[in-house]
Amino acid sequence: MIPAPMVAMNSARLVQRHVNALLLSTFYVTLLAKPIKRKPASIASGFSVKMTGSQNANALKSGWNARFLISNGAGTAGEGTALHGARAEHLRDKTISAITFLQQRWLSVYRDLVTQERESQPQTPYRKRIELEKKRHCGEYLLRDLAARTFLPGYGFPTDVVTFDNFTMEDYIREKSQKSRDKKDREDNVSRYKGLPSRNLGVAIREYAPGAEIILDGRVFRSAGVSLHWHNINADTNEAQRLDCAWRCHKCGTIGYEEGMSSSGMLFCSNSACGEKIIMDNRRQVLQPAGFVTDAHAPVTNNIETMKFVPVVPAWVFVKAEPVPLPNPLMGYMASGADGHVFQQSLGEGGHGYALCLSCGRAESMLNENDAPKSMEAHYPPRPGKADRDSQNHRLICPGSTALMKNVTLGALARTDVFEMVLRKPQNGEYLPDNTEEGRIVAMTLAVALRQALAGVLGISAAELGYSVRPVRLEDGQSVLAVQLYDVISGGAGFASSAPVHIEAILQGMVKQLGCRHCDTACSECLLDSQTRHDHDLLDRKVALAWLGD
């Protein structure tokens, strides 16, 4: 029997999204003069382009101030959940604040596109690029966009979405010579956003990383760089781009993320019980990309025999929560919370980060700690710009070629629900050691099996959950490994943090998952899927079973 999917209500952020959905639907059904069409509304109509931001905010607030909405809607939506007891006015104000922020951000990009379109020369690749971007920006479905931006519940839908812009000169020439029919996406197509290929930011950092090759509609595109400005994806100015600093303690697993801070200088663990100096291997100079782009002037091929991929780097996961003993205290303890942190990262092909041009966004993997690729020394911008050609229509070298940022990590920090467990053998009290290969194999295998078990208990897809391991410092100073699960959706969905409620069933399911009869180490029947294949060399069910014992 397949269990019914579970909708968790133990996360305040998740419950607030349901309140947002209730108020938004009531607003459209009850207060708008025009009836809702069966066709999904575009974001341009939903955000009322012709109205100013303040006018829209006032309209929303006046509508959602209605007495029946407060008493019969938001006032009861939080009962029996993580928001039980919250005042209806407070929930409504949080909804208005969230939708106003999204609207202002959308309108800011829209007005910038209109300005750039007005100032550009007609019949040029740059003009065509702006026209396409404006059309995509206005034509995106409202509800899909609000789910992607975590305003509405997004079960099964990716959140914190970024795109891969694969516009090329071939597209410009083809569309200039013949008017192609408009192809509109289905509103429930979760793999495209604004008409472009899209992924959750944490996934995109791996799949769309500069240097990676992506197959789209039978054609192979190479990622050439990033969109720099998170608030203005189409900016062509040399505006200063913020770089952040991320770190993780090699002893206790605490992670830190400092916005606008350099990674140079000495850093120490912020955990008062630890205080270790942060080693250089666990420090990152981070850029959070707004999107990824291909080189518009590079030829597109259909050769799939020599595909290039960028290695996947494990996520850093941490939650600050009080430990709770397992049902059998001799087996260890667990901790969970709805305010955990997950840092996704990409370090390039060789693990030395990227050489990044802060002027145009072109990026290439570093050859070693000090040397950038020769292709970055005098490069052209990857996207058509309004000042990328001289008076003879020749392409100009990017002015940022002589001032590259080196050893840059592409990364993103997200808050979400996290569950972790520190296991020990009941027979001898042995923990999972952090300094042995066998310890890491056992920890990773148990994390994957635990993920499958929790997904089965909750009736959700295993893809909704991520997994990881981290070092934990014991009271005696010993460093051991914890197995971790976290919600993939940014902001959390209440899945991982609900694990303690079902801990006995989950532990039984974990052991059962390791009892596969089809393989010696791992296979698609037990541990391998599209996500865990990246860790196939650290999965061995028999080694994990031997460590667990009887």
TrEMBL record:
Highest taxon listed in the record's lineage: Bacteria
Q: Which residues form the MrfA-like Zn-binding domain?
A: 447-527
Q: Name one GO molecular function term.
A: helicase activity
Pfam families, A to Z = MZB
Specify the protein name.
Putative DEAD-box helicase-like protein
Q: Mind listing the UniProt keywords for this protein, alphabetically?
A: ATP-binding, Helicase, Hydrolase, Nucleotide-binding
